[in-house]
Amino acid sequence: MGAADVVISGVGVAVAGVDGPDDLLRRMPAGEGGDPARRLTGKGLRYKDRATRLALCAGRDALADAGLLRDPGLTVSSETVGVVVSSNYGNVDTICDTVRTIADETYVGLSPMALPATASNVIASWLAIWFRLRGANLTMCNGPTSGLDAVNWARLLVLAGRVDRVLVVGVEPDNPPVRHLVTGGASDQDGVRPRLFDGAAALVLESARAVRDREVEALATVGPYARKADQSTAVAAIRGTDPRPVDMWFGSGAGGPTGITPASTYDLTAYHGDCSGALGVLQCVAGTAWLSGNDSGAVLASADGEGADAAAALLLTVGGGRS
Fold first, then answer.
1. 221 forms bridges with which residues in the sheet?
2. Which residue ranges does the record assign to the Beta-ketoacyl synthase-like N-terminal domain (predicted)?
């Protein structure tokens, strides 16, 4: 682990039936397990949409896993922690409710408390407010590659010295407005019922120097990233930078991308449904959980989709271990 490396120091998940990151590689029957958002209790939840609540649950677990969150709060300066969120559907339910209220009652029917929740960056904003994270704050809504793009932007923020660490959360809700959007208005009665991911995954990216200063060790190291026109080109760009053998590949399909023969392949959409903007973060959390239990190895995460305008790929390698 070099001084200029960016590492992963904590992970968290909020997915029904999933007890922790290690369980992400286990195929989950639809509807299994309780609602993870119920783990979030206390005041201040009334005007928070489902995606925000799920993100808060996963984010809390990742910060705690990294040793950054204890009672009564952060263990580091709040200015050193940023937030990057990936979500393509996010608060679409709030927006639909707001539009419906305006159509039925005009603007006078809106609650002044609910209106700020229609902003596209509401999830990242609430994460920052809830945990007092005062560093850079970004939201990615970038199609299938959004999750891996978010991890890379967090990496760039750390490398640029904007912050020492970043909480990255990928989250998507499954609710009627999202289903209406995904299916183009088709109903369950029409026989159209796709399985959608309903949950959140989170990880903490941190500079290797900051990890050493805190006297903790890394779970994984963030390697090269590429965003190209298609998956094969993105993978080739990474292989040109780091040609080491790949032990685990996250993507779609059974054989792995052209140019590599991974020991294990996983399509998390087959396990947990259409993950959309949460996919890349979910892959990185699952890959980190695997790497943290091994002395060596590399995980390749990749994301594209039908009709997507680009593909992204990211390599994770073993970090310094957990003391």
1. 7, 317
2. 47-178
- The tens digit of pLDDT for each residue in 296-317 reads 899 999 998 766 789 999 999 9
Task: State which of 153, 187, 213 marks the end of a domain.
Answer: 213
Query: Does residue 24 lie within any of the structural domains?
Result: yes
- Inter-axis angle of helices 279-291 and 146-159, to 10 degrees? 70
Burial of 74 (0-12, 13-18, 19+ CB in 10 A): middle
Q: Which two tokens stand for residue 226?
A: 């590429």
User: Three-state SS string across 253-273, please?
Assistant: CCCCCCCCCCCEEECHHHHHC
Residue written as tokens 């941190």?
Answer: 206
- Which positions of the chain have pLDDT values less than 70? 1-4, 28-33, 187-192, 253-259, 306-307, 320-323
Indicate if 21 and 67 belong to the same structural domain.
yes
* Contact criterion met (CB below 8 Å) for 274 and 193: no
DSSP-based three-state secondary structure for 70: strand
Same domain, 140 and 46: yes
